[in-house]
Amino acid sequence: KTEIERDADEQYNIEKQRIVENEKKKLKIEFEKREKALETEKRIRASNVQKEQRMKVDRKREELLQELVGNCKAQLTEFAKSSSYKEVLPNLIAQAAFGLDIGAGSIV
Question: Does the pLDDT at position 14 exceed 50?
Answer without folding.
Answer: yes
